Amino acid sequence: MGGDVGGDTVRFARWDGAGSPFRVVSTALPARLDAGEVLVEVELATICGSDLHTVAGHRPAPTPTVLGHEQVGRVVAAAPGAPVRPGDRVVWSVTVSCGACPRCTRGLEHKCVRLRKFGHEPVDGGWTLSGGFATHAVLPAGTTIVPVPEDLPDVVAAPASCATATVAAMLDAAPPLPGRRVLVTGAGLLGVTAAAMCATAGAEVTVSDPDPARRRLATRFGADRVAAPGEPLTGFDVALELSGSATAVEGCLAALDVGGHAVLAGSVSPGPPVTIAPERFVRNLLTVTGVHNYRPGHLRRAVAFLTGHAGRFPFAELVGERFGLAELDRAFAAAGRSPALRQAVEPRR
């Protein structure tokens, strides 16, 4: 099938703002895909922590909208110029970039001047099927789309679009890992993914988290040592901050050895300021890098890692129940009760 797709009716979960329930709405597919566009049927989506923050009113979002940006699906139709074919099983990026603006040409596609984001766009803005909590999604030209193997479990593949690719971006911002001492703060999905990717790369990994259960989980994802906040942590070559806690950020910076590098990705919402001593940064040659979103190659790296190591680490255990599209309110309630787990949404149910 090429660009002609019109005629079918599909469904999506419309969210109208904090305090509003999700409503399942039907809509017709566009009559035709534009050049480079892809129509995907969503197999499974997972509820990211940022989705929870949005629904709780802790971060701004256009409304009405279709939330969800971690998912795996099957290509139904692809217009000329698209990088995939009908029948391909794929994941795709959170960001849609123009490829031509000054930021894109500098390798900052994830901060494109005309950036659009999957799961973050208004329904009435001309791109209705723009989130994972829908039976189908339209992927515009400029979306990174990566095929995934048929045998990679859906609950493992879906988070690649956000959690795993973000960790890949963090490691790209860090120095080479073999033989390095790495500190990871925060042992949610991103933190344990970071532990697994660092351990696989040959690093010695310590994970810090206040939750004993999360610390135990981190050992199953390759952590050589776990620690509770407040335990003395020093001498690290690399510190990866994924909790968003200002205290954890300060702990990461304090834990660095001479020439150390901190990569911060957890602080995506406003929070209290962090105190630093500039003299220590100067004398100890320290580097701090922020990571937000990711480049196309990071999603490809994420899929390659999961494909090669899904059997070694218990990623499938990090996703809890499965809910239908009409059960999205219950799914979010379950996610709020168990923030250490992703909850799954099967839109075709």
UniProtKB/TrEMBL annotation:
Keywords: Metal-binding, Oxidoreductase, Zinc. The keyword Oxidoreductase applies. Coiled coil: none annotated. Residues 190-306 form the Alcohol dehydrogenase-like C-terminal domain. The keyword Cytoplasm does not apply. Its cofactor is Zn(2+). Residues 35-150 form the Alcohol dehydrogenase-like N-terminal domain. Belongs to the zinc-containing alcohol dehydrogenase family. This is Alcohol dehydrogenase catalytic domain-containing protein. The lineage of its organism: Bacteria, Bacillati, Actinomycetota, Actinomycetes, Micromonosporales.
